[in-house]
Amino acid sequence: MSLIVQKFGGSSVADAERVMNVASIVTDTYKQGNNVVVVVSAQGDTTDDLIEKAKEINPKASKREMDMLLTAGEQMSIALLAMAIEKLGYPVVSLLGWQAGFKTNSNYSMARIKAVKTERLKKELDKKNIVIVAGFQGINKYEDLTTLGRGGSDTSAVAIAASLHADRCQIFTDVEGVYTADPRKIKGAKKLQEITYDEMLELATLGAQVLNNRSVEMAKKYNVELEVLSSLKRVPGTIVKEVATVEKMLVRGVTKDSDVARVSIIAIPDVPGIAFKVFGKLAAKGINVDIILQSVGRDGTKDITFTVARDNGEESVALIKELLSLNDNQIVCDTNVAKVSVVGAGMETHPGTASKMFEALFEVGVNIQMIATSEIKISVLINEEDADRAVAAVHKAFLPEDE
Ligand code: ADP
Ligand code: ASP
Ligand code: MG
Questions:
Q1: What are the extents of the domains in the chain?
Q2: pLDDT at 44 over 80
Q3: Is the minimum distance from the CB of 47 to ligand 2 under 6 angstroms?
Q4: Of the CATH numbers 1.10.1040.10, 3.50.50.60, 3.40.50.2000, 3.30.70.260, which one belongs to the domain with range 261-334?
């Protein structure tokens, strides 16, 4: 007998028909003699709708109260799925995150899982129940509800799989697996049979929302093999694991991330210590900086440009303006930008990857504002309006359709 963790995202449980479809996938797995733990997200756009509701009342609501509100979405879907499974005549129990033992830190809205206390889960499995767990949520040391950040249900599923040493962790979604680009946007995007944790981590971090990046990080740490597959079509998906056995591809995928703001500090004194002051201040406020570019000093001044998450743009400007006593012309924040990246472990040994990407962008007339490279990825910052066109062009250059 195997223990299988299955996670279903919001679109997979969006309405009554979809909930019944999930119930049939889950009970089929159970019927085959497996123990099954199921993690579900809130239905469809419920989480976004709840955020809108909050904004109507208080756009500056505390993160604690936001978490209290958002956990309600998953509470609805676990009960509905459990009812669907009851209807099919199988033993089932639904559990909120805290009932399933999810202990987190107190970083409301972006909490980290500290432990999963598995006693209750094990007890329910011993009773032969199908266990349905609310994803994306836990409880902190003050007994307050917390959430794990958008897309956090993937992490809930991996955490359960790791804690219970599950035999399989299946992430069901609305596409057939992990593709070389978003299959909803890029014609010719190809489904990958397998991908390594490291490559998937880059793809997820750089904008492929099909898996949450923290879930991939955790899967790698605890060696949980993931399968990403469709809840609507029963065909094999993509396996995420340590070593992919299929031939190493130069490029695994192309991503777009619009959650970016570019901050430029212009004509500041070219003296030692400025970068340290600026980035030290941002770090102290918990603001994560991504790409950094500093110009060569000229006439005693220099420019520094960097990117942060879009929500952090205005705050970064305010902090640095005060820190360096800048006027309005010396610091600007542009949110009309996006980051497009190519990812692939094969790239590190291949010269010419960067120039091929730049050529593809040149051919469709896309201007590059910033560039960042690592062994496994090349990212460019461009105008947001150009991003879809850029992804299509870069994808075509590296992963032509007839290959
Ligand atoms: P769920 O509700 O199941 O968690 P998400 O919306 O979070 O689903 O993630 C699935 C979506 O991710 C797909 O519908 C697809 O549009 C998008 N996506 C972006 N990049 C990729 C990619 N490289 N491969 C597959 N899907 C991708
Ligand atoms: N419902 C949450 C969200 O929309 C968590 C998830 O779907 O994974 O972000
Ligand atoms: Mg998701």
A1: 3-174, 261-334
A2: yes
A3: yes
A4: 3.30.70.260
Beta bridge partners of 298: 301
Q: For the whole model, what pTM was predicted?
A: 0.93
Query: What is the CA angle 370-376-377, rounded to 5?
Result: 25
Among protein residues, the one whose CA lies closest to atom 27 of ligand 1: 182
Q: Measuring CA to CA, which residue among 96, 194, 164 is closest to residue 136?
A: 96
Tokens 């949450």 correspond to 212
Residue 131 has pLDDT above 60, yes or no: yes
231, 25 in Cβ contact below 8 A?
Answer: yes
Q: How close is the Cα of 352 to the center of ligand 3, in Å?
A: 34
Query: Ligand 2: does its nearest atom lie under 6 Å from the Cβ of 73?
Result: yes
Q: Does ligand 1 have an atom closer than 6 angstroms to the CB of 9?
A: yes
Mean pLDDT of 8-23: 98
- Asked if residues 327 and 338 have their Cβ atoms less than 8 Å apart, the reply is no
Residue 345 has pLDDT above 90, yes or no: no
% the chain with pLDDT above 70:
98
**Best of 12, 173, 259 for a ligand 1 pocket test (most atoms within 8 Å of beta carbon):** 173
Looking from the CA of residue 42, the nearest atom of ligand 2 is 1
The residues pairing with 85 across neighbouring beta strands, listed in sequence order, are none
Using the structure block, give the residue that is written with the tokens 């299509």.
392
Catalogue the long-range contacts made by 351-359 (C-beta closer than 8 Å, 24 or more residues apart): 353/250, 353/251, 353/378, 354/378, 356/397, 356/398, 357/394, 357/397, 357/398, 359/397
| CA 344/CA 144 separation, integer angstroms | 41
Helix axes 213-221, 197-205, angle to 10 degrees: 160
- Burial class (CB within 10 angstroms; exposed 0-12, middle 13-18, buried 19+) of 233: exposed
Q: Cα–Cα distance between 37 and 26 in angstroms, integer?
A: 9
Q: Kindly report the CATH class assigned to 3-174.
A: alpha beta
